[in-house]
Specification:
Shape of chain A: globular
CATH superfamily of the largest domain in chain A: P-loop containing nucleotide triphosphate hydrolases
Strand content of chain B: 15-25%
Strand order of the largest sheet of chain B: 2-1-3-4-5
CATH class of chain B: Alpha Beta
Number of strands of chain A: 8
Order of helices and strands of chain B: EHEHEHEHEH
Order of helices and strands of chain A: HHHEHEEHEHEHEHEHEHHHH
Shape of chain B: globular
Oligomer: heterotrimer
Number of domains of chain A: 3
Largest interface: B-C, 36 and 40 residues
Chains: A alpha/beta (322), B alpha/beta (134), C mainly alpha (581)
Radius of gyration of chain A: 22 Å
Number of helices of chain B: 5
């Protein structure tokens, strides 16, 4: 059962009250005790939002493009949430979140809610965390959620996998061109956008992309997959929004893809929770430390230690949040 | 903090002043102190700052002003935060603030004034202590 | 008797073994704390190639055989002349409130003996291309400078400059960048109104938009479009205002924003090259326009030796670029023309124990005087207090400068460090490092490319952060700030009895009064004339081969406001994107 604070926040978020919404996002993101119950309470209010993932290399102009897209969608009557993800410093754990800087128009619109998120070094857990924040925005009535990340790491690719439509942004003049894109991106992307298209080389990048797509076969629905835009001037943005709207409207996904998504989500949530409970249990009763000591003085190895600790764990019950 | 919670700080330059050396240095410094810093750059209106502070659920707002417009701009930011029910977010002011204006700022409701030469560590500790107390 | 390099190096090795190491051991420190330079340090030193003579290429030793102020220094002392900081004939940098407030201030200064033209600081609203009734203007109107919303305001300033001080007799300086075209247009309109030939106007607009993206932040349009505007002002100046300088290229601001000395030099050169290229691309002969480029006070740290070397390196580097790369033959095209140099920079002053800033500024003055400039003790000690410069601080500044000139004889020798093994090797080192950095920037497409990709602004921010970390770690020591701050130290400060002549009541009411004036202007002017002139401007702005200056002059005369003009250009050029960290 949710305590009063959580209840107020959940209610406030569903009413799209900005402070409550923002605070709820913080608690969910930080996995504060009670967060799963809060998500359970929110879940019935979700399902309307379509999630667009925007990724690509640094300097491609993703944030500026996201700004334009948000403005365009708002003009078409949507309420837009933007989640801008940036890497945390592996050394200090802190982060410099500066994507909002480029989202001037979106930042002033009453129909847009922007939230900056750091990766927080939580491997694998980030995609779920972002998905959860997107759900909170969904419950608050934002029917379109843009998730913007830099596509240079596996994490970031995981994040956009949470999206219904994935857009990869390229830009002319980046040395290796399309080849530089992480291998995984080509497979997951629905759309490719050549931004800063006023620059020399835009057509060549488009040609490169089309060349690679030709090898993987046409879009099953026959939809256009490559676009040129200039976020600064706005050129091509309307056409892109049309394309995104068309694709978003085709979601819910095919039954298979939807099932796969939910399956994956449940597994991830379970795995994270199991890992958390195991850690709490083992750290609590000192057996982990003992195992580590044994390894250090040569009496055991990590593999045997893990096996025997698991065998000892009678069940995974308990481990309720402190 | 029991959870994964991080300290989040908004660093903003209100008004038209373009000297952002101090703001950038504090942004880098707070990041290296383990905070999540939402850096919004130049020419932020008080309205934008208040919105950002609320949407990002920050633990503190840092305003950097070197143009002399600190009293008017800070007053406006504080007013807007109050109007939107966020008066509990501490507002810190840094930059070129004459001694005689520091009291005026505190009377307006500013939590701390940190001028040139203040070590980053001091600012970080101040913010962290406010978070603990909250 | 001339020794070979080998002999000297062997002797040095022996010295290290026999004299230095035993001493280091005796004092039980890890290494020798000081350095010593020998003829071997300066490498292949060719005096004529590396230094030459003051007034001759490559100008390492100075721009002239002697500076203009030096010709009259002794006579000036006997007459008790007050040389305003900066040897140009524009007066002290000033500006506040409304144009009426500023005009009255200027008249008060004139009553006290000031003879120069206006050296105008504009408020941020003006600098960013807005009017005083814009929502962006909150708190800023008339604060860091005078508020100029229209030609009407501009004209009022010059009510203080008539007769003997008319604009053909005094120089005007404008610290204005993004809307420089508008201010220049106002000046041209004023001359026309007064029947003064444009060719007689003198002065310097700052007009250095590239550094705004890197260090100062008052940009409006994106970099490429801003360069188009620069081109138009350059061509207009050469054609119609031949007596005016074209720009004041700022290494100073870049350094103040945190750049290292090498970055300062490299980025300034890159920016200068970009501006020169605009002139060349516009079809102007290099010898025609390069002599009208100026630089804004290279300098900016307490490291005396390095700042002297830096000035020498800067002069040599620029001279080589203009001569070898751009093919100039007029020596004036190759000079780093700056009103002042090598001062310590305002960021070297401290808020703690501010009187120490006098000592600091004297060190800067020494560096300046020993590297081809007038040894000005700048800034006044109360700079960091944020209250303007008091009359006490200005008096101390002037006297310190005079002491260096007249008592210490600092300026009696040109380039006194020429030939010093240390100084020549240091000059080479700084120039070499700057060349490397410049090559990197050229690889990014020059200054504009290195701004568009964020490299220059981020590099400066990074250097600023590194400096802060060094100070906090006590690796860089600053007296009274991170060392010698114990309870036995006296926190000295001075009661500043006489304040600036900026009336605080005027400051408080400036925004209100300016808005009232704007409202009146909009009622009195012909809206038809305004929209006609703005539409013509829009047409010319859209044609990249056209020069927008004549159209801006018409706009200014029709009493379009500064923001109205800048907004037309915003519509055509777009606005600059903020730089991400």
């Amino acid at each position: 059962m949710l305590d009063e604070t959580w209840q107020r926040l959940v209610q406030g978020a569903c009413d799209a009250e900005p402070r409550a919404l923002a605070r709820l996002i913080s608690r969910v993101e930080s996995r504060e005790a009670g967060w799963q119950q809060a998500m359970q309470a929110l879940y019935p209010h979700t399902g309307r939002a379509r999630i667009l993932g925007i990724t690509g290399s640094p300097g491609a102009g993703k944030s500026s493009l996201a700004d334009r897209l948000a403005a365009g969608f708002v003009a078409r009557g949507h309420r837009v949430g933007i989640i801008a993800v940036d890497p945390s410093s592996p050394f200090s754990g802190g982060a410099l979140l500066g994507d909002r800087l480029r989202m001037r128009d979106a930042a002033t619109s009453a129909a847009v809610f922007i939230r900056s998120m750091a990766t927080r070094g939580s491997l694998g857990g980030l995609a779920q965390g972002t998905r959860d924040v997107a759900r909170v925005l969904d419950a608050a009535g934002y029917d379109l959620v843009l998730i913007e990340t830099v596509g240079v790491g596996q994490d970031e690719i995981e994040i956009v996998k949470a999206a219904d439509v994935v857009m990869v942004v390229c830009v002319p003049g980046q040395g290796d061109g399309v080849q530089a894109l992480k291998a995984g991106i080509m497979e997951i992307a629905d759309l490719f956008v050549v931004n800063k298209a006023d620059r020399d080389g835009a057509d060549r990048v488009e040609a490169d992309i089309r060349g690679m797509l030709a090898l993987s076969g046409d879009d099953p629905d026959g939809l256009e997959r490559v676009f040129q835009t200039s976020a600064v001037s706005g050129a091509g943005v309307d056409a892109l929004i049309d394309a995104l709207s068309t694709r978003a409207a085709r979601v819910p996904l095919s039954a298979d893809r939807a099932l796969e998504r939910s399956r994956e989500e449940v597994l991830v949530l379970m795995e994270r929770e199991i890992a958390r409970r195991v850690r709490v249990r083992l750290e609590g009763d000192g057996r982990l430390e003992e195992a580590v000591r044994n390894i250090r003085c040569g009496r055991s190895d990590p593999y045997s230690a893990a096996e025997s600790l698991l065998a000892d764990l009678a069940s995974f019950e308990g481990g309720a949040h402190e | 903090m029991a959870s994964d919670r991080k300290v989040r700080v908004l660093v903003a330059k209100p008004g038209l002043d373009g000297h952002d050396r101090g703001a950038r240095v504090i942004a880098y410094g707070l990041r290296d102190a383990g905070f999540e810093v939402i850096y919004t750059g130049l020419r932020q209106s008080p309205e934008q700052i208040a919105r950002e502070a609320i949407q990002e659920d920050v633990d503190a707002v840092g305003l950097s002003i070197l143009s002399g417009a600190h009293l008017a701009l800070t007053a406006k930011v504080l007013e807007l935060l109050r109007d939107q029910g966020a008066q509990d977010i501490p507002v810190l002011v840094g930059g070129l603030i004459p001694e005689r204006d520091k009291d005026a700022l505190r009377k307006l409701g500013v939590a701390g004034v940190f001028t040139a030469g203040t070590p980053i560590r001091e600012v970080a500790e101040f913010i962290a202590s406010r978070v603990e107390a909250a | 008797m001339q020794r070979t390099r080998d002999e000297i190096e062997r002797a040095e090795e022996a010295w290290r073994r026999e004299v230095v190491e035993p001493r280091v051991e005796r004092f039980k420190i890890p290494e020798c704390p000081i350095r010593f330079y020998t003829p071997a340090s300066a490498g292949d030193f060719d005096f004529l190639e590396k230094v030459g003579f003051p007034g001759q290429y490559p100008f390492t030793a100075g721009n002239h055989a002697f500076e203009a102020w030096r010709a009259y220094a002794e006579a000036g002392a006997k007459l008790g002349v007050r040389p305003d900081y900066g040897a140009s004939s524009a007066g002290r940098y000033s500006g506040y409130g409304t144009a009426e407030d500023y005009r009255d201030y200027l008249r008060a200064m004139q009553a006290r003996g000031s003879r120069g033209g206006p050296n105008v600081a504009f408020d941020l609203v003006t600098q960013c291309g807005f009017d005083s009734d814009s929502p962006n203007a909150l708190g800023e109107v008339g604060r860091v400078g005078v508020a100029i919303d229209s030609y009407r305001d501009f004209r009022v300033i010059y009510e203080a400059f008539t007769g003997e001080r008319d604009i053909d007799k005094v120089a005007s300086n404008f610290t204005i960048n993004a809307p420089c075209a508008v201010i220049l247009a106002m000046l041209a309109a004023l001359a026309e109104e007064r029947g003064i030939p444009l060719a007689k106007l003198r002065g310097t607009p700052q007009n250095d938009i590239l550094k705004e993206f890197i260090a100062r932040g008052t940009y409006i349009y994106p970099p490429r479009e801003s360069m188009r505007l620069f081109r138009d002002t350059l061509v207009f100046c050469r054609r119609h205002l031949p007596g005016m300088n074209v720009n004041s290229i700022g290494g100073y601001h870049i350094r103040e924003a945190g750049a290292t000395r090498v970055q300062d030099l490299a980025f300034s050169m890159a920016n200068g090259i970009a501006y020169l290229q605009e002139g060349v691309d516009a079809g102007l002969p290099i010898d025609d326009f390069a002599p009208k480029f100026t630089f804004n006070a290279f300098g900016g740290s307490m490291q005396v030796y390095h700042e002297i070397a830096f000035q020498r390196a800067a002069r040599r580097m620029w001279a080589r670029i203009v001569k070898e790369r751009f093919g100039a033959s007029d020596p004036h095209a190759m000079m780093v023309r700056q009103p002042a140099g090598a001062h310590i920079g305002c960021t070297s002053t401290t808020l703690q124990r501010p009187l120490n800033n006098i000592a600091r500024s004297v060190i800067g003055g020494m560096a300046c005087g020993m590297s081809g400039g007038m040894p000005a003790a700048y800034p006044p000690f109360d700079e960091p207090l944020g209250l303007g410069h008091s009359q006490e601080s200005i008096q101390l500044q002037l006297d310190a400068t005079r002491i260096m000139i007249y008592e210490a004889g600092i300026s009696d020798v040109a380039d006194p460090w020429a030939g010093s093994y240390f100084m020549e090797s240091l000059t080479d080192e700084i120039e070499g490092a700057a060349q490397q950095e410049l090559a990197r920037i050229e690889g990014m497409g020059g200054a504009v490319g290195a701004i568009e990709n964020g490299y220059m602004p981020r590099a400066v921010a990074q250097s600023a952060y590194e400096r802060q970390k060094r100070v906090e770690a006590q690796e860089d020591l600053v007296v009274g700030v991170n060392c010698f701050t114990g309870e036995n130290e006296l926190e000295l400060s001075l009661n500043r009895a006489s304040e600036e002549l900026y009336d605080p009541e005027h400051l408080r009411s400036a925004e209100e009064r300016q808005r009232a004036k704007l409202a009146l202007l909009k009622r009195e002017r012909s809206e038809a004339a305004v929209s006609h002139s703005l539409r013509a401007l829009e047409r010319d702005a859209k044609d990249s081969d056209a020069n927008v200056m004549p159209a801006i002059v018409e706009c200014v005369k029709s009493e379009a406001t500064l923001q109205e003009i800048c907004d037309v250009l915003r519509g055509v050029f777009g606005e600059a994107e903020p730089v991400k960290l």
